[in-house]
Design brief:
mainly alpha; two-stranded antiparallel ribbon; two-stranded antiparallel sheet; elongated
Length: 317
């Protein structure tokens, strides 16, 4: 079992180093997630090789430290992926809550608040803490459930406001959240000799990294609203000589009230109106054709069209 914990710790470290070394434009909350997962797995490994109760409590605190702030980093990463703005006040509040939660956990072995008693046992050669829970132990359950609820609420709100361009992305985000909830609940109510969260966290960070790479172009840093008034329309309409800004204005005037285009969607709309093919658009924007296809599908859905021909028809509608 010690070897398994060691492998998990090594994998987490390799993923962290790889992310730092290979990704130029780093997302700070995703980076924090990688750091926290590494700390959690290091704590589990140190606990498994503990020889004294004191060192085991220290290793347990290390794992808890990573877990406490891992929940925060996962929530902030999901908020960013869902297209919402992260307020500085929110970050400060979450940091304070995390600090308070870890302070409560760190009383283990000092005060009988979180654990009344702890003892060291060995299972298959690996050390494990046997605990008698104290009066403040439920606070961690409340802490985690609050974070999970916030993640679910963020995903639901993002879907409701059409902030996530793909239903598949939203499903993956939800699967990450519910997967970790399930693993955590199983470990709490069914006795296991292995911390399966160490594996769950690794899968979560890999999936979130993949989602971030796929969805970073969808993150709305600038939304283009529907014009208050449609561009003046003249008959007959000569599309060939029509200025591009007028074309854009005519198309945007067909959006439903309150509907908006993301910046990338606006850029792709202009290139489509220039009669460029998907491959040409992908090359010009340095994106894959699949990404352009997803953008185009979302764009057409907002405009109520299903093809280029119907889009061009909006210019003379």
């Amino acid at each position: 079992m010690i070897i398994t914990y060691a492998i998990m710790a090594v994998i987490a470290t390799v993923l962290l180093v790889g992310y730092v070394a290979l990704v130029r434009k780093k997302e700070p909350w995703l980076l924090l997630l990688f750091v926290c997962v590494t700390i959690v797995n290091a704590g589990y490994f140190l606990l498994s090789v503990s020889k004294t109760v004191e060192f085991a409590i220290f290793a347990n605190d290390v794992a808890y430290f990573g877990s406490v702030f891992l929940s925060m980093s996962m929530l902030l990463t999901i908020i960013k992926l869902c297209g919402f703005e992260i307020k500085k006040k929110l970050v400060v509040v979450l940091l304070v809550l995390g600090g308070v939660m870890f302070t409560i956990v760190a009383t283990a072995g000092i005060l009988p608040w979180y654990y009344k008693e702890v003892s060291l046992v060995f299972v298959d050669g690996a050390a494990k803490l046997e605990k008698v829970y104290g009066v403040l132990h439920p606070t961690y359950l409340i802490y985690l459930l609050a974070y999970f609820a916030a993640m679910v609420a963020c995903i639901v709100q993002s879907i409701r406001k059409k902030m996530i361009a793909s239903q598949r992305h939203a499903t993956l985000l939800a699967a990450i959240v519910f997967g970790n909830i399930a693993v955590w609940l199983v470990e709490k109510f069914i006795p296991w000799n292995f911390e399966f969260l160490s594996v769950s966290y690794l899968f979560s960070e890999v999936i979130l990294l993949g989602l971030y790479w796929m969805m970073q172009d969808y993150i709305r840093t600038d939304l283009i609203p529907r014009p208050a008034q449609a561009a003046p329309r003249q008959a007959p309409v000569d599309i060939a000589t029509m200025p591009m800004e007028e074309k854009i204005g005519r198309v945007l005037s067909c959006l439903e009230p309150g509907e908006m285009l993301a910046t990338r969607e606006r850029e792709i709309l202009e290139l489509v109106l220039q009669n460029k093919k998907r491959k040409e658009i992908a090359e010009e924007m340095c994106l894959s054709e699949n990404t352009i296809k997803t953008y185009t599908r979302t764009l057409y859905g907002k405009l109520g069209v299903s093809s280029r021909e119907e889009l061009y028809a909006l210019l003379i509608k």
